[in-house]
Structures are given as structure tokens and as C-alpha cells.
Amino acid sequence: MAATIYDVAQLAGVVPSTVSRYLNGYGVRGKNRLKIEQAIETLGFKQNLIATGLKRSRLRSIGVLLPNYTIFFMTITAQLERILAQSNYSLLLGNFEDDLTLLQTKLDFVEEHFIDGLILFSSGVGTESAPRLQQYLQKKLPVVLVEQEIPGISTDAVIVDNAHASFRAVEKLIHENHTRIAIVNSPEHIYVFRERLRGYRHAMQTYNLPVDERWIVTGRFVDMGEYAQIQQLFDLPNPPTAIFATTYYATLGTVVAAHQQHLKIPEDISLIGFDHFDPIDALEPPLSLVLQPIEAIAQTAADLLLQRLDGNYANFPQTITLSTRMAMRESIRKL
């Protein structure tokens, strides 16, 4: 079996990113350079490179795996690309469509392409990839998780306090005297949305307000067909007076559903949405939103990965929790 970059790193006693730097023509400390050259000679790795026709590139690579190509993930990815390019890293991007089998395939693919590190948006089926990720870590390949920690995996993670964000949003509606509050959420098998639902329930419970299970609407809301689920809220005998939409697409879907029912925001229904992207500014009235720290997510994930790539494992593993903020605009009416 042909030797890999990870075999070279293990034999030389260095991290794979150091071997990658050497192979790509970057300067490596003398002692490490000698160890790498000896390992390459022992393993015949240089001959393997020639045999497979691989060419050296001046640009090193980071694998970034996403559960989908929604505007949220692509915006963070664009930030990551900008940040990591400053350290001469390019991105090897993959979408696993929230499918475990496809995720395993993507994990194999990016490893075979000699990535130096991995950023995995781990919500949903990503949590089931622990055995494969453990193999990455055993090869000293740095992994940073975004959105959720994975049980059994000891590595760095960047998460957002989604439950607290939801609690504050629902609490704001309660302070405006709303007691019948619906939530338009994504599927609960995804950790982020399970946490947002938990925050919603916690706020309602804290203020001794009942939750009608019919007020909990679940879907992806990326096509018009799903908007009918939101419209059903308005047909209830005792419909909600306010809605908390937990994603960008749920927010847009709620606006469309209300418009199709000839309801005005906030006169007929109050709304707090999630995430700000430029197209949402075209809506009237301006919407109240929970704002995720997109730039901070990208910067923190990149900083952690670059620190590990430099061989600095101080305070490893780290889980960094980021907070959201709220932008209160004109989509909430006080009762």
C-alpha cells in the first residue's frame, strides 16, 4: 500500500501540515526538514508522488464540508476563504446534503486530496461521523467543528448559543404583550433547530404561557409548497398573534404566507426572523431579526485551525460559544 502524507508525518514525528509545507516548497525548520526527508526516503514517498503524477502547488488546502449550500453557509464559507487565503490556504469545498453516506464519501475525498485541516459544519448527520473523524485526529489532522460538538470527539468547536437567542426573541414578543406565539422552525433532528425550539419552549414556560402544539411548524421552506404549513397557523380557531421564524428561509416564507392570506405585518401578525442578508432589506416593513455573528464564526474557526496547523495545541480542545444580537425594527406591534 502506497505511503501517504500522514504516514510521513507519523514517522517524522510532525503534524501533516508541516509535511505539506515541505512538499509545497515552503520553509520548514531544519530539524523537521531532516526528519521529513528521512521519512520520505524510508517510505519511498517521493517515488510515490512521481508515480502518481502529482504536482506541487504553492497553495495549501483546507477542507470545508457543509450540510447544504444555503445562503447562511455560503456566506460563512466566503468569509473563511478570505481569511485563510491570507495564510496561503485555499478551500476544498463539499456539500453532503445532510446525508451520512455522502458525508463519509466527502470525508474520504478531501483526505485523499491532502488537505491540511478540516472545518466541518457538524449539525445534523455530522454528529454520526465520529469514527471517521477520530481517524483524522489520530493522523494529527486538525479538525474544527462549527455549529455543534460531536460526542466522543475531542477537538475544537465554534458554536452559537441558539437556545438563548430563541429565548430572547420570544421574550421580546412576550414583553410586547403577545401570549399566542408560534414558531416556524427547521427539522428537530438538526441540533441547531432543536436548540432554537428549546429556547422557545423555555421562554413560554418561564412566563407561564401555554404552548399549543399546532403553533409549532416545521419545514425547510426553500420552496413555495411548504408555505401552506405556515398559512395553516392563520386558520386556527385561536391563531397566534406573533411568529418567531428561526431561519432566513422561514422568515421569508412567513412573510409570503402572510401576504397570501392578505395579512399585514405588524398590524395583523407580528414577526421576529433570523439572520440578515441583503435581499431581506427589500421587504416592508423592515423586519426585526436575530443576527448571528457570521464574521465572528468564520474568524474564530479559522483562527483555531491556523493555531493547530502551526503546531500550537495550547488549551486543546477549545469550545468557543458566540452570542447573537437582536435588531429591533418595525415588524412587532405592541398589544
UniProtKB/TrEMBL annotation:
Listed CDD domains: HTH_LacI, PBP1_LacI_sugar_binding-like
Keywords: DNA-binding, Repressor, Transcription, Transcription regulation
Entry-linked InterPro entries: HTH_LacI, LacI/GalR-like_sensor, Lambda_DNA-bd_dom_sf, Peripla_BP_I
Keyword Transcription recorded: yes
One Pfam entry name: Peripla_BP_3
Keyword Secreted found: no
Single annotated GO MF: transcription cis-regulatory region binding
Residue ranges occupied by any HTH lacI-type domain in the UniProt entry: 3-56
PANTHER family to which the protein is assigned, alphabetical: HTH-TYPE TRANSCRIPTIONAL REPRESSOR PURR-RELATED (PTHR30146:SF148), LACI-RELATED TRANSCRIPTIONAL REPRESSOR (PTHR30146)
Name of the featured protein: Transcriptional regulator, LacI family
